[in-house]
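Hello K.,

You asked for the raw outputs rather than the summary table, so here they are, unedited. I folded two proteins back to back in the same session to keep the settings identical. This is the first:
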Amino acid sequence: MADYSAQISDSLLFRKAGISDIQPISSILRMAVARMLAEGKQQWDENYPNEKHVRSDIDNGVGFVLENSGNIIAYGAVIFTGEPAYSHLDGTWLSDGNYVVVHRLAVSQHIRGNGIGRIFMLAVEDFARSIGVRSFKIDTNFDNFAMLRLLDCLRFTYCGEIQYERGTRRAFEKLI
């Protein structure tokens, strides 16, 4: 997939991640994992996600960042090739065509609560629309209340549950 970037504002840029971004991204993910574990959340742990996942995302061209004045403040894997687990939904998707999915979304601990996750997700929607993709699917754990609120705010529709090796996740879709 071709490089994609979008200037969101004077200081915010949504862009494909590069190798030089691995350390700041990994730092954001480590802080997010620590926060989830401290809150007793079950979606992520000491082994997932980690630097290996970030490197793989970047190597596969799916790692994206949101940066503020050159500083990375959010990260996510933006995937247009599908998610195998989504073919076994216990429920019903809104559509059957091509879709974008985001995995491993994390916002810097230093800027959480300022709508950065929302900005990242809206940038993904714009990216998808720019290449003709009209469906956005995503899943999250039942206890990831921040993501559940974000999906509600962005008007995603709950479609059912999917199963990963690590457990059941709630699945959502938004037609864009």
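The second followed immediately with the same parameters:
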Amino acid sequence: MENQISEKKIEIVYRPAKFWHRCIANLIDILLFVLMFFLLFLGIRAIVQTTPSYHNADQKITEIRLESGLYVKDSKGEIRDIITYIGVIDADLSSYGKILYAEDSIDTFLSYVEKVCDSNDAQEIKNSYDESRLNKNLCDDAGNPYFIKDSGGNIIRNEQCNAKLQQYYDNFYVPYIDNTLQGYLVTRVPNYYEYTKYMSNMLVFVELPISYLTSGILVYFIPTLFFKRGRKTLGKAIYHIGLVDKNILSPSFKRNLARFCIFYFGELILSLFTFGIPYIISFSLMAFSKKKQGFPDFMLNLQEIDTSTNNIYFDFDEISINNLKHEHKPVDFKLRDLP
């Protein structure tokens, strides 16, 4: 009788996780990742901004901007470029008033570069103002130029031009300040480029990478250390989805780490620079391949299963201890497709 019992097999049947369950679980994880990234970015940015070097660069940029005349401080204390500032008070300002603001900004900038720039650079910037106003392409529908030189050689608005003052502002002053003078601010004003580059580098090489890496570890890796059976993320835990290896056992720590690296650094990061192509390929494999595996799972021979009815085991010894007790029945793992 004992021999007959020992020959019987313990049958453990797993079923692949439903596709739509996997999609929703992934969506939950993505939303958690975005939320975590946003919160971490705000926190890390706040820390970076308290450093002396960052504070000094920010202060110098603000000083240069305000002294250049291309930026002003609004009633709330925020620093705005002059064109944006004019747009904010647009409802209370006539076209002539906008032009006065713009011309005052240009005159201030020309005076500023004479003080801080090389004399050749300052003269080049002044000449660009004259050349831009006398550009032959700057004319009304009848071909009359916006600006002409008077008998004394001064550049004035052309009375014969049919363009309205708003057209003067939109077609000349806005692009000249936004494009030409802002370009000169970056390329010709001493130290401005270095300060802005420093702040950009802090954003690109410190704030964003740390936020991205930390949020990814917290959402996609740390939960798998708590939900060891099946290496589940929070989204997959909610929908009872676990991972098994080729032996239908819970993946080892090394395999789980390899999966995270392939998914996070190979799939997600490359997707940021390739319009999501790696992620689309992985999703297509999950949807249409024979075993419904995403790219990381395909590479490591892993599969997502439904754990709502059966538990996932770490090894065969655990099955003998927890399930077979003293009967020592052989184990027969089966992975069945959903009906």
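The longest strand covers residues 10-16.

Happy to rerun anything if the numbers look odd on your end.

Regards,
P.
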